[in-house]
Amino acid sequence: MGPFERRVDGRCTRCVAARLRAWAAAPEVPVRREPQDRGPKLRRLRRPAVQWPRLRRPAVQWPRRSEPQPRREPEYAGVRRPEPPWPPVARPGPPPLPAQPPRNPWPTRAKRAGAAVAALVLIALTATASLRVWTPASSRFMRIDDGPVTYQYVSLDHVSRYIVASVIAHEDDQMGLRAQAFHWGDYADRARAHLTGEPQQTYSTIPQQLAKNMFFTPDQSAIRKAVETVPSILLSSTLPDARIMELYLNYAQFGPDLYGVCAASWYYFDTAPWEMYQYHAMQLAGMLPNPEDVVRLPGGGVATPPDAPYPSAAFHINGAANVDLPARFAGWGGWENIVASVGIEDSAADHADDRPSADSCSTMPEPVRQRLAVEDPGFVSRSQ
C-alpha cells in the first residue's frame, strides 16, 4: 500500500477489492443438518469469513513531566513576537466614589439613651403601681436604723381621722388640692434657700417625705433632695392620696427607733390608733419634725414642759397641739373637710366590724410591749 492510495474506513481499496474477489470465488460449503419432521431439509450455505488485517497504531511516546518540554517555535519563525509595553499601561477603571462624610454617632447614642430611660421609667412605674396592693415590710429608714426597730403595720381604715387630718394640716395642707407631688415654684425656692444658706419658707410635701423614708436616708444634701423628686412624682402619679397617707403614717418616725402610727399610739398613749383623741393626734403630728428628740413620760404621755430634755421637740409638739393645728382646723371648717380633700369620706368607726384583725392594731404590738418592759418596768397596759 503506497502513501497515495485511496482508503476506505482506514483500509487500502486495493486490498479490500482483492479480498472481496477471493470471497466471491470461494466455493460454497454445504452444511449438514439433522433431519426434521417438517419436510425436506434445506442446506445453508456458509461463506468463509473474511480475515481483515489488523491495523496497529504506532505507540506515542509522551514525554515525562520531570523532563523539560522543548519550546515549540511559532509558525511565523523568524518573525519577532511583539513585546508588551513597559511599564504596563493601567487600564482605566470606574471613577472613584465621592468621599462620604464621617457618620455622626450621636443620633444612635441618643436613641439608645432614650430607650434606656424609657425602660427605667416603665420599671419604676410598674414598681410604684404595685404599691396599691403591696406594702413593703420595712422602709429605708428602718433598715439603716442602728437600734431595734419598733413597728407594726395598720390599715388606714383603722386609723383615727383626727390623726389623718392633723398630719395633713401640719405637714402638707395642700396635698389634696394639688395635681402633682409638689409645686415647682416652692421647690425652686427651697433649692435656692438651701444653696444660699437662707431659712426655708416652705418644706417637703408628704409625697416627698414618703419617697425619702422609703428609698433614701436622712442626709440633707442637695443631691438627695434633687433625686427624691423622681420617686415622689411617680408615687403621686400612680397612687391615690389616701394610699399615700396610709403608707406615710406607717413609715413615718415618731420617736427614736419608733416607726408607724400603730406603735406610736400604743407607746405614748396606751391606746389603739382608731380611738385616738384629737389632742393626742395633734401631739403625734407635732413629733414629725424632730422625732429623734421626743421623750416619753413614765406612765405614758409626751415630755413637753419648758425644761424638757429637748426643748425644740417640746416646742413643736406644744405649738402644734395648742396653736397651729386648732387654727388650721378652724380655717378648713373642721377636720372633716381636711380628710375629704384626700378622698376619705368614712370614719374609723365604720370599720369596727373588721376588728380584731391582723391589720387593725387592736392590741399592743409585741415590740412595744418589750420596749416598755425595759424603759418603764412598772407600767401596766390597759390591753392586758
How are the SSEs ordered, and which strands pair?
Elements: E1 7-8, E2 11-12, H1 13-25, H2 106-129, H3 140-143, H4 161-171, H5 184-196, H6 206-215, H7 222-227, H8 229-238, H9 241-251, E3 253-255, E4 258-259, H10 261-269, H11 278-287, H12 311-332, H13 335-340, H14 366-375
Antiparallel strand pairs: 1-2, 3-4
Helix pairs in contact: 2-8, 4-11, 4-12, 6-8, 6-9, 11-12
N to C succession of SSEs = EEHHHHHHHHHEEHHHHH
| SS field, number of helical segments | 14
Structural class: mainly alpha
Quote the beta fraction: under 5%
Number of strands: 4
How much helix, percentage-wise, in residues? 40-55%
Output the radius of gyration.
56 Å
**What's the main sheet like?**
2 strands, antiparallel
Q: Report low-confidence residues grouped into runs of 5 or more.
A: none
Oligomer: single chain
Principal-axis shape equals elongated
User: For the largest beta sheet, what order do the strands appear in spatially?
Assistant: 1-2
- The CA-CA distance between the termini, in Å, is 147 Å
What's the rounded overall pLDDT mean?
83
Word description of this protein:
This protein is mostly helical. The protein has helices spanning 13-25, 106-129, 140-143, 161-171, 184-196, 206-215, 222-227, 229-238, 241-251, 261-269, 278-287, 311-332, 335-340, 366-375, and strands at residues 7-8, 11-12, 253-255, 258-259. A hairpin with a 2-residue loop joins β3 and β4. The model has no long low-confidence stretch (mean pLDDT 83).
